[in-house]
Amino acid sequence: MAYQADERRPAPRPVPGDREVQAYLQDYALLLDAVAFPSLVVDHRWDVVLANSAFETLFRGVGSHPTAMPGDNFLRFVLFHPDAGTVLGEHESSWALPMLARFKAALERCAHDHGLQAIRREIAQDPIMEAAFRHGLPHWIRAVGEAAAEHDGAVRPLLHPDPRWGATDCRLVDDTPKTLRDLGHTCITLVLRDPRRPAATARRPRRPRGTAAHLTVVPAPEP
Fold first, then answer.
1. In whole angstroms, what is the distance from residue 160 CA to residue 192 CA?
2. Regions of the chain where pLDDT drops below 70
3. How far apart, in whole angstroms, are the C-alpha atoms of residue 43 and residue 208?
4. From CA 28, how far away is CA 194, in angstroms rounded?
5. Cα separations (Å) of 134 from 101, 103, 130, 150?
6. CA distances from 119 to 42, 76, 103 (A)
């Protein structure tokens, strides 16, 4: 569990609020850790407030990164971690572009948020990511429709490190209770599908570990 207080009782990342809010989050952390599927609670910047042990297991094989670990900020992980494609199947179309679309909407709602602006600057510093944000993303939305950017109900491929799951799919379920919603948080559970179920679509090859992320909706730069 993220931000363990001790070995017996998981604790949430500290957030502003009174003692009752903190007590609620501590109890919700216990509930979340009882969920068999990977679950996380994020704020409006995708900073991870809570993540259960199943979530940690899913991403246990990713390498260290100074700013884009999945248990710290899930948006940064999807966009900037070079190992993201080793866990998130069809990384570009199923994960990166939908997350870019969600980020764009958040930035339009909270234009002066310092955390979101920091992510925007990081995108701008990467020519490929910047071109994807400015040009590839609008093209993708026109092609697939705005509904494709929604998390709740989306079915997306995963490459689970546990061989009992392996290459499978998950359905993203937004099951945010009112108290979390009032705090500006969102709870998302990745409901894993039985890998023995016939696949609906063929899987793309797994990206080798350590390769730089690249969104193919824009041309690669000349060497």
1. 9
2. 1-17, 195-223
3. 31
4. 27
5. 11, 12, 6, 19
6. 15, 8, 9
pLDDT of residue 209: 41
| Predicted local distance difference test score (pLDDT) of residue 149 | 83
Token code pair at residue 146: 């705005």
Q: Who's near 44: CB < 8 A, 6+ residues apart?
A: 106, 110, 113, 116, 184
CA 83 – CA 87 distance, rounded (Å): 7
Q: Where is 128: in which H helix or E strand?
A: helix 127-131
101 touches 132 (CB < 8 A): no
Tokens of residue 42, six digits: 């994020």
State residue 65 phi and psi, 5-degree precision.
Answer: -150, 140
Q: For 84, list phi and psi in degrees, rounded to 5.
A: -55, -40
Q: Which two tokens stand for residue 184?
A: 């500006």
Quote the pLDDT of residue 12.
59
